[in-house]
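Before relying on records like the one below, remember that each one covers exactly one chain. Contacts with other chains, cofactors or solvent are not represented anywhere in the record.
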Amino acid sequence: MVQLMHVPVLFKEVIAGLQPRAGGKYIDGTVGAGGHAEGILESSAPSGLLLGLDRDPDGVRVAKRFLSSAGARATLMHASFVEMARCAQDLGWKRVDGILLDLGLSSRQLENGRRGFSFMREGPLDMRFDPTSGMKAAEIVNLWTQNEIAQVLSEFGEERRSKRISQAMVQARPIDNTLDLARIVAEQKSGKIRGRRHAATKTFQALRMAVNAELDALKDALPLALGLLVPGGRLAVIAFHSLEDRIVKQVFRRESRDCLCPPEHIVCACGHRASIRQVMRRPIQPTTEEVIQNPRSRSARLRIAEKL
């Protein structure tokens, strides 16, 4: 059942980009249901090793069942990818050959109403990747000021009606569940569904990103990942949001340059040297066939860098 429900985004492209090999060590920083991890293990057989991390303890449990046939080759831990260096050190790994960060929300998380991620299913306003700790979305919705909520919706959701929606949310307090919140948001946008997007998509996305501090985690994780790679090792990142993809793009571009000085500097004064090369200049996007089979993949962008 797990295997049928979970569809890894850009699966073939990720495996081709990481180039797993026998004897290599690999980290899947968002192991989820284990789809990409299984591909890495198969491609690095018989001696490749995998460390799978996930902030969601349920995801770790699912992945352990799914990857059980790999035995000791797969180690799974309940941890954020920001902790990848510590987790690798716990295994005695000083460097690794490849790292994957899939920044998307899994179908399993979306389809479980109790997690509060979906505007299509009734559930509590939770939205935490790790339901055992941290702030819930209900705290933002019911306790934060109107201006603070508007800033979250504008910054993380790029929602043009952030002020109007935040005002309606404050006036409707207390808001107890996901369907009530989705209705309130839709009313401020004339209840319209534009194209394939529900009116509440951006609001739910913004709240989730704020609850889990997703952009901060990504900014912290990228230099850690690049520092863990052996020469020739590769980092693959799948982003689903323009802000995430921009962060990855900027880091990859900066770290692939020899000098970061302003153009007016005739002689380099920064001393920066390129530590990676971008495997491709433009991100890889899902094919039309993949989007038809898995509509949630439509916004995915894959970027790959190789350590020099």
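The chain has a mean pLDDT of 93.
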